[in-house]
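Inverse folding, one chain.
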């Protein structure tokens, strides 16, 4: 009996993926996580404009945890028992702090600006990976990230002023969003360390659990009853968030954390499109120019990383 077309297509896709170099596979997983997170950010921005950001943060992770419960029930508690529980809680606490800063700024900043500010994260991640994890820093990664960050400055330069927001203080919200970047970088570095002893599923599950626990007291403080449409939005957020973190964690397994960061810059293009469709945010000329610079750096480093992995005598 011949397998069904869907089964054959899945087998061909797996065979094709297995033939790719680890660097390319890591970049593809990272790109997939970026696309999912962009849709997630757009959905959460809409919800955070209707409910308090701290409640939005809590409910997003409650439903992210709920999405994982069927996997827990099927595999059993033993399959999700961490080897490093203290590391899991530290990761959850650090990530929660970054989320508080991020969510408080989210409703007041255009989606493309939110994404562009997040691009400062690779700089902190690269430095942390080199300093704490002793990962090699090839000159291509430094150059691509530097060029990409120059593109981010083109996007954010006109916005990083307290006068830009007038009485509303939009510049202050941009600064608050920017302060979350090094905190998230620390969280991702902890994740990289955890991948040495924990499976992807365990890391994603315990992130959802610990962030939910740490966010609960803040949510109760500002609680208001969501509408049925808002509940549905949080269900979608839970699925998108869990899938995005799964893809991101998988990317860390195939390559050094610093080698996957440049692909994040493609998220600016997706964020600009979604911001225009969902919130009527028309990207500024500086946003488009910065996006071109960022995309060029991303494509270039992806090709360089693929070539480096293909060389049998490539030095680390």
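Residues assigned per position:
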């Amino acid at each position: 009996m011949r397998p069904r077309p869907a089964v054959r297509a899945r087998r061909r896709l797996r065979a094709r993926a297995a033939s790719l170099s680890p660097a390319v596979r890591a970049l593809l997983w990272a790109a997939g996580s970026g696309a999912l997170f962009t849709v997630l950010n757009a959905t959460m921005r809409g919800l955070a404009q209707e409910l308090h950001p701290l409640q939005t943060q809590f409910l997003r992770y409650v439903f992210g945890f709920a999405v994982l419960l069927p996997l827990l029930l099927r595999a059993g508690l033993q399959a999700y028992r961490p080897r490093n529980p203290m590391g899991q809680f530290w990761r959850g606490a650090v990530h929660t702090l970054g989320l508080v800063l991020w969510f408080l700024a989210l409703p007041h900043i255009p989606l493309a600006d939110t994404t562009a500010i997040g691009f400062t994260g690779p700089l902190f991640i690269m430095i942390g990976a080199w300093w704490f994890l002793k990962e090699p820093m090839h000159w291509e990664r430094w150059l691509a990230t530097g060029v990409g960050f120059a593109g981010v400055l083109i996007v954010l330069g006109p916005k990083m002023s307290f006068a830009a927001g007038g009485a509303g203080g939009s510049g202050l919200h941009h600064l608050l969003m920017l302060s979350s970047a090094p905190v998230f970088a620390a969280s991702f570095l902890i994740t990289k360390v955890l991948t040495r002893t924990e499976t992807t599923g365990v890391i994603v599950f315990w992130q959802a659990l610990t962030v939910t626990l740490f966010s609960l007291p803040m949510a109760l403080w500002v609680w208001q009853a969501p509408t049925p449409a808002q509940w549905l939005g949080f269900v979608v957020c839970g699925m998108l968030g869990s899938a995005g973190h799964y893809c991101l964690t998988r990317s860390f397994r195939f390559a050094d954390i610093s080698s996957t960061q440049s692909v994040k810059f493609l998220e600016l293009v997706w964020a600009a499109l979604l911001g225009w469709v969902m919130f009527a945010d028309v990207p500024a000329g500086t946003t488009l120019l910065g996006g071109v610079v960022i995309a060029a750096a991303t494509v270039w480093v992806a090709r360089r990383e693929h070539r480096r992995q293909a060389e049998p005598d490539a030095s680390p």
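Residues 150 and 280 are 26 Å apart (CA to CA). Confidence is low (pLDDT under 50) at residues 164-169.
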